[in-house]
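Need a sequence for this fold. Nothing fancy.
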């Protein structure tokens, strides 16, 4: 069996009183698109810096390609990092920026030329090598940063919120580009983001971080369909939680049917009556906030497949919510006050 591209075993890192990374263990396969997802301050960048070697862990082991690199400096690791702020040299051309790492490593000139041309083609900037960074758009600059990393042919590419500075339209475009590049190169990507949509659309697997700990690790479908706890259920998707008979139930808003009282529900459905408090029309969908008679409030999302005329006359009305029992899942309460309280104690 081939060794994992990356293996972390019990890795921890403390900054003063903050436990930024708390006993993290995971293994990432070769060629995987792996995402570290979590809110600001959850330890994503700290973990990435440990993998890159910019920091040493206080405890635990880091292996790349089956070799223990815990004490190996960054330049001797088979990793490269792409940062959110690009960190390009403003006085150098695009080509010189991309070539920089190859020069540092004293690669022969022909080899450098060849790799720079390939790298720029890969990120669709062929022909723009003569420009300076300030003559490029934000998206193009991020492509240069990407080209500069991939010409070094790292085994693992680390990306720390690389699209964070781009507007939404460009971000979505670059998400698809990054996926394409990763597929074509076949190298392992470890991608950091706080954006759940980005994580779900791009990743083979995702680790959800909170307070320096992994709350859950799984495929996008696993995380959305079977969140392990309240934190994951709320962070990925909308936290649609009610308590019934001492159990905490999560139902995704698009799995709930909104019925008028006179409509007949599907046999076997779980039913809840309530009052529509709020209606938000959002083009493709309409969102309804419903206060339930038995307590609790649920968000319902209905696709506007026909006309939305029906939407507004639901405000203030009594309705019935219906879902198939298997669409609601039991979850445990939030676990992770632990590390943060420890840190602040
Ligand atoms: P994220 O990237 O998920 O936003 P970070 O890894 O940057 O989170 O930070 C995790 C925690 O560690 C935060 O509480 C942050 O303030 C703290 N931290 C990170 N780096 C340092 C540092 N160099 N010195 C002190 N505290 C740090
Ligand atoms: Mg960060």
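Here you go.
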């Amino acid at each position: 069996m081939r060794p994992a591209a990356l293996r972390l075993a019990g890795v921890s890192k403390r900054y003063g009183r903050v436990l930024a990374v708390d006993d993290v263990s995971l293994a990432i396969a070769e060629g995987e698109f792996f995402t570290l997802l979590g809110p600001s301050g959850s330890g994503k960048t700290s973990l990435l810096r440990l993998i890159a070697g910019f920091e040493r862990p206080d405890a635990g082991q880091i292996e790349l390609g089956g070799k223990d690199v815990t004490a190996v400096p960054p330049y001797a690791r088979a990793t490269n990092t792409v940062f959110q702020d690009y960190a390009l040299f403003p006085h150098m051309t695009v080509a010189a920026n991309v070539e920089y790492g190859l020069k540092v490593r004293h690669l022969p000139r022909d080899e450098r030329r060849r790799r720079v041309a390939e790298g720029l083609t890969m990120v669709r900037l062929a022909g723009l090598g003569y420009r300076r960074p300030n003559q490029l758009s934000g998206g193009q600059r991020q492509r240069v940063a990407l080209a500069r990393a991939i010409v070094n042919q790292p085994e693992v590419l680390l990306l720390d919120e690389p699209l964070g500075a781009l507007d939404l339209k460009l971000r979505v475009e670059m998400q698809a580009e990054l996926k394409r590049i990763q597929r074509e190169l076949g190298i392992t990507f470890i991608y950091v983001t706080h954006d759940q949509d980005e994580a779900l659309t791009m990743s083979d697997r995702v680790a959800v971080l909170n307070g320096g700990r992994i709350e859950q690790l799984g495929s996008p479908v696993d995380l959305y369909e079977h969140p392990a706890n309240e934190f994951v259920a709320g962070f990925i998707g909308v936290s649609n939680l009610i308590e019934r008979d001492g159990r905490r139930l999560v139902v995704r808003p698009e799995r709930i049917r909104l019925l008028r009282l006179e409509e007949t529900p599907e046999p076997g459905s779980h039913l809840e009556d309530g009052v529509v408090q709020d209606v938000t029309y959002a083009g493709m969908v309409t969102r309804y906030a419903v206060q339930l008679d038995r307590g609790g409030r649920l968000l319902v999302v209905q696709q506007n497949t026909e006309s939305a005329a029906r939407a507004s006359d639901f405000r203030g009305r009594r309705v019935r919510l219906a879902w198939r029992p298997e669409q609601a899942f039991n979850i445990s309460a939030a676990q992770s006050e632990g590390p943060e309280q420890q840190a602040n104690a």
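For context: Residues 239-344 form a domain with the OB fold (Dihydrolipoamide Acetyltransferase, E2P) fold (CATH 2.40.50.140).
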